[in-house]
Fold:
Amino acid sequence: MDKAIIKLDEGTTCTAWNYSGHRLAAGSTDGTLSIFDSTDPASSVFNCSSKFKVHESSIVKVVWAPPEYGDAVACICADGSLLLWEEVVEDSELLQWKLCKCFDRISSQVLDVQFGVSQTSLKLVAAYSDGQVKVFELLDPFELKNWQLQAEFQNVIESVSKFGNVSCRSASIAWNPLKGEIQQSSFVLGFDSDTPHLNSSKVWEFDQDHQRWLPVAELALPADKADPVSTVAWAPNIGRPYELIAVATCKEIALWHVGSNPDSDGRLSVEKVAMLSTHDSEVWQMEWDMSGMTLATTGSDGVVRLWQCNLNGVWHEQATLEPTS
Amino acid sequence: MPGLTSESDDLAMVPVSPESEKQPVVIYPLRHGLKSPIHRLSFSWACGNTLRVSVFRKPPSEKADGDGEAGGRVVEVKLSNSGDEEVDAARWRRMAYSSVTPFALLQSRKHSLSAASRMSLDIPPYKAEWWEHVIEYSKEISSLLNDRKPPPKSIIEDPKSVVNEIAAPMCLKAAWELLEIFYVDKQSQSWIPERLIDWLADYNSLFSGTLPTIHSKLVDFQQELVGVQVVEEDPNYWDAMSSALAVGWLETVVKLLRLHGSYRFDQLSSRETENGLVEAVAVLISKMPRMRPGLREDNLGECYKTKPDFMKAWEKWRTQVSKLDCSSYWLQCDHRQTREGLKNLIQIMLGNPTVLSNATFNWMELFISHFLYIRPFTAGLESMHNSAQKCIQVKPVSISHKLFGLVFGILGENTEVVLAECSRSFGPWMMAHAVELLTAGSTHADILLHEEHSKLGGVSIEELHRLVYAQVLSSHALTWQIAPIYLTSCIKQGIGLLENLLYKQPVQHSQILLKSIEICRLYELDTINSNIMRIAGVHHWKHGRKGSGVFWLQQARDEFRLNRIAKQLFDFVGKSVSDEGFKQWEGLIELLGSESRTAGGLEFLNKYRDFRRSLLQVHGDTPTDAARNAAEALVSLMKNPSTPQRFWLPLLYDSLKLLMWQERPLVNVSQTHLLLNKLQELSMARLRPDFVEADLPSDALSSVRLALATNLGGAILEE
Structure:
């Protein structure tokens, strides 16, 4: 049932699989990125096909760009910089990975980054340690170096004045995974910061008419709004009439149903449907399976937990994967 | 994903029973093989139910040099085990593939029937037809579960072989047959007990691993039999026969009886009475009345199709058994073991509960023996259920077998229990396929399985099981292609999951790309189809296979990206005029063709290509006609408003030989004026800051001007 498929180099800090699960990018403390490939789609034998230095400092997170834009990864490094690398063959040369963009960082560090595919363009949301959120847009689908800053805002739902001197420990972004043409692009974002207003997860949707990003839902009960959010996960929707989003805070993992029709204020209806115990540990990662029926989580407890809902709508832990040597 | 159990190795869980929340969390080991302590984990879902967990060990401290151990491992965990202890992976895939056709056929028949009957299969003529289809489906699935061939029968039959070791039957097939007996096969409803007797005869060996069974007793005895001289003095001989008789394996008992020493020629005369009694019992056993339409090969008994006939025959047979029991011949039988053993067999036939209980080893065997000898006229699930409960009281099970749970659920007419047992013990394949049997056979099951659950996002349990099975199929590169058959039978969420599945295919592999496109076309998934081709196109383009890239982007009708490519070509053409560079791009311009009309630049590119071609054909000794054509192409290009300004000078410079044609001027006066005007316009434009200088020799402009002037002179003279 379980089988070790890849041996990671010493100092590996993070890994990321591409959209089809046939390529793995592994970042390490010395700033090197290794790419593992399987030659045959049916095989689970992976070999390191490329290894290159991305940056001087340690890589802390790797995110693959959507396949419609080629084979590219965004790397967040320990010093807070964000770099985009792409695999290309240029002018009948050999295949190589090349740096196509190094996003400017002035004073703050990049905490999380996620790509979102909209109708015509590729968007990139980055959350920074000063509480800022930036949305970049790709101008030319073949040129991963030309990004335009589309919007910059803070993760607050009421338009109050801007918060200054914010310090954030971590942030988590998840795009709505639906790939339909009608769907508006939207994402959910939460912070772990010293500013209570920024923390709670908010759903942001792009308003085509006014060309701006609007907060359409807040995923926190009034009493919990200041709770720092460690990670968020938006479930794939294969036919549910509502969206399902998981939000992990220091207290619990909450599952939210988000309605699809906005009210007169443009807000979406939200309902907290489950509270899953985090077993007094911090949740570092959550991911839904392809049907959106099983949620996998891991964190400081060092195990992977699988959660499911029964016919009565009750969510419960179904299984735990515990590492043994 | 979705009915974890601790007994099976299968994580594919279906949230069926509401009690599941009370069940303890199952803990699975994640064997990573690292010696050092684990620092942290991260994971990612792959296609289907596969989870890849990256296990990172603590980064070594700065001082210590690397100890040579890996920095971590990636472990792949298949959450749905497609193949358990009895079905290996390859066999499981074979089963998955061969069950597709019966399933698809049944679905299409359901569609056409519900169309004909206007959505209701309950109207009698349609219902009967539907039954036929379900029975056919059930038989076909059942036959494919039996893919192991029985060993060849030896030509010389071993007289001492009592247990036929047929190919190990599978639990899955046993479970499927149970469902068929109780839910589908309406024709055998009147003789369900006899079908259960056959069922136990076929599958008793399945229980041998976990429980004491008659089968294992017989196997043991058979081994012993080879060395035994006087069989009738061995108590095991009599025990084996009484056990076999208790569950109705009449032919085994008769065969064993005939091994009795009194049949031997040298003893026949001295043991005449004894032999007579043995034979009388054997005859009675072989004439036992059975309430069934016919017997299977080698089976003994006399069949009666109707209940009255059977009851009459049964009473008569019982009287004969009682008569033999009271016969005075017993007094003349000197052999004690024979006398007692035969009497015991008679007690079984007379339905003595204590003797039956002693002869059987678990409640299922006892239950079957009750059908045969205590309640031969049992009918209806309720009385069967009562009888089963009594048997469980007599022979409680310490280790429950998964098939027992299923039998008990069926007898109790508890669809939830049946579903839960099937799901827990037999996995997603069973659930996806067996639901058709349950819904056909029970109205309650039909309602339960088709009811939409809002808590599950609006799907029915039937659909949920198909989704789960499709996800299991999706987990493997060799089975994902059949998942669409199951997904398209799901009305609510099937297409959504199919789209996700297709999106996750590695389409840079051409075979997978073609298969995905085929699936998209079949189910009219145009958006995802374009997307797949777009991904393939971009991949090829970026990996140096420009032609394939353009081809797939055209197939995807991705005007946006094609226009970007056209613009790139355009920029390139403006930069380089060398023949070699042009050749490289010529094919692409060809490929881009006239399909993407929206690109203004493309019109120019096409014209430019034509011009280049005609120019390449012009040499010093070419006839003037060819040169004239090239000159016309040049003029038409220069006239065309879509020709960008930065191309003007390179175009003219490339055409110097046309402008200075020796024989006669190729460009007439008005055309030359036009070209001169363009040149003038260009000189003005050079003053603007955004002007891009063409990569040409510095004297390009003056040589063009000179050539045009020469040409003008010649043209004026000519006119």
Chain A touches chain B through 90 residues (CB under 8 Å). The CA atoms of residues 237 and 292 of chain A lie 6 Å apart. Chain A has a mean pLDDT of 91.
